[in-house]
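re: that complex we talked abt at group meeting.

here r the seqs, copy pasted straight from the sheet so there may be weird spacing, ignore it
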Amino acid sequence: MVSEESTSTSSGAAGAAGMVAGRQLLIAVRFLLAMTLLLGVLYPAAIFGIGRLLPGRADGSLVADAGGRIVGSSLIGQSFDGPEWFTPRPSAAGDGYDAMASGGSNLGASNDELAAEITRRRADIARVNGVRPEQVPADAVTASGSGLDPDISPAYARLQAPRVAQARGLEVEAVRQLVTEQVTGRPLGILGSERVNVLQLNLALQRLAARDATAG
Amino acid sequence: MTPALAAAGQILLLVLALVLVHRPLGDYIARMLGTRAGQKPDWRVERFLYRLLRIDPRADQKWSTYLTSVLAFSVVSIGLLWLILSAQRVLPYSLGLPGMSPDQGLNTAVSFVTNTNWQSYGGESTLGYFSQAAGLTVQNFLSSAVGIAVFAALVRGFIRKATGRLGNFWVDLTRLTLRLLLPLAVIGAVVLLAGGVIQNLNDPVTVQTLDGGTQTIPGGLVVSQEVIKELGTNGGGFFNANSAHPFENPNAFTNLVEIFLLLVIPFSLPRTFGTMVGNHRQGNVIVAVMGVLWALSLGAVLWAETAHNGVAMQAAGAAMEGKEVRFGIPGSSLFAVSTTLTSTGAVDSMHSSYSGLGGGVLLLNMLLGEIAPGGTGSGMYGMLILAIITVFVGGLMVGRTPTYLGKQIGAVQMKYAAGYLLVTPALVLLGSGIALLIPGTTDTLANPGPHGLSEILYATGSAANNNGSAFAGLSANTPMWNLLLAGCMFAGRFAGIALVLGLAGSLARQGSKPDDAGTLPTGKPLFAGMLFGVVILVAALTYLPALALGPVAEGLS
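got the structure back, here u go
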């Protein structure tokens, strides 16, 4: 068996150790440069190439409105102000849904200030939507971990339907129907939770309102 | 389907996938690590690399040479990564971002080379695409491969007789990268890409949103880094929100894939161990202890997160603060338990917003030493150290010289094993002490009193354990914290590795002693029970005093 140290045993022990270390350092430099080329350039480039087969997804699932204008990403939540839109969850990313500053509130479950904030949010949502505070679901009053949660629970979407319909002068039943159509089930029937994508729901709402306007 | 049934189905699907994969994958890794280069057919690309890099693949290294290789490689890696992060401004695809400050660059370089992935920066606002790909993605692969290589050297210590030689670090690193991590990463990347994880070189694009506002949407080579972040139990996110970010983890399917990826190698390595030592029961005992700890921890967190503890959680009606709707509470808890027990440090929900008890279990997971199943390689060598302690304790009870896998566990071996167990607590306590002595540290804390001490303990504990998860509140990007934690990460990783390799060398020099009637059978359920007890005992004895001053005092006040 060839020994790595066998060639350097003639010099002193310290010198031998130094030579071993020096040789290992040189190999380390060569090895790292080769691996940086392979794993840091060729591998990401190859995956980038595969990504071109699915450009919509690789580029961030951007979505356009009826006029073809890019209005955001179906994966990234965005703010919606005004009673005529379905409202997303509270967001701790920047000033709210800042996609360049993702993050959560990091406030603890026993934080008094967070509890007061949640109670205030609950009262506001109940008032705006004309429901009892205890009917407001948990996702409506809590900030997500990313601050960019694109989804709300089906319960929160249904709760908002009458208010949105009223603000837009649409039939409540038609808006409720829209929510039902926009509910995404669990992948494979068991993974994660049922959800409604707020941007997709509001885009569908916009289309419904446009149809309603031309019909009326 | 009810939510509870769906949650049970999700967990069963994950366990089933791991059960199916761990045998073939574990055996595949065993073949890769058990055959010597130059004697079995190397891959053509490997022969090319050995020639190109002037590596002698037949050189069989003593433990000290193996360690020299590990250290040389890691120091060079830190140097190059530090250079890339500092020089970011002049590199391609830097998005016009400036280089990192020297202290933050050093902290980040040490962090990724030691498989810690502590981040004192937010990815989307700090790093360009070149730094992430050529700098961080590379170390996501290599730091993981280093951990598995050290595990392989330790196992060779058990199976080799009267030699003192542990294999060749460069051959191990080459094979683990080319035959294991890279192929699995490519497969995982394609799956995650199909699930919606992004991979592009687009500059951040500003759009007018539907209600008339504006939003800037980032791009990046995300999936190529995301997959190895999980597979190599690294955990450093491309984005600040880590795997909670929809571009890193778009839906519940990718979420389960990512959990699978971060568990699959650590749960396969016990099989590798059993195959390499020629006795599958030895591996089964270890995987059983790992599995029980994981299941208990998961049960505790699921219960805590559905039991509505804390005023804020009660006000909300469910533990949704810091969690994403698409994953739900079970999917988030499953990720949280798996990431804290594997030293990954990736998160798909914010642990600081977990219930008091749930968050406490996650902290405990980290302090257990990350052995259930632990990081790639490091979990297994940590568990084997505890197995040696268990054998020794068992030997003391019956008054026999203890043996494990035919090797005597004497004073020398126990010094290495005990030294290994003392590295982390020594660093946590010394590091916290130093932090408290330096003026200005208290300004970086978000909370006064015991909670402030918890922030310091969590930061040094996370660094010294090479975990990388953070406890919100601490302003970690100060020169003091960057340098102190870099020191903790470096010492925690390499002092541990040095002791493991020293132990491996001392084992390999021994001959093999046949089992007799007085030998503790280490392939039986009884030993699994003893090992489980030692795991709990060691963690409790090590950390209870420090925990009493932080979280416990806070809970009682």
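couple things i noticed - The longest strand of chain B covers residues 205-208. Chain B has a mean pLDDT of 91.
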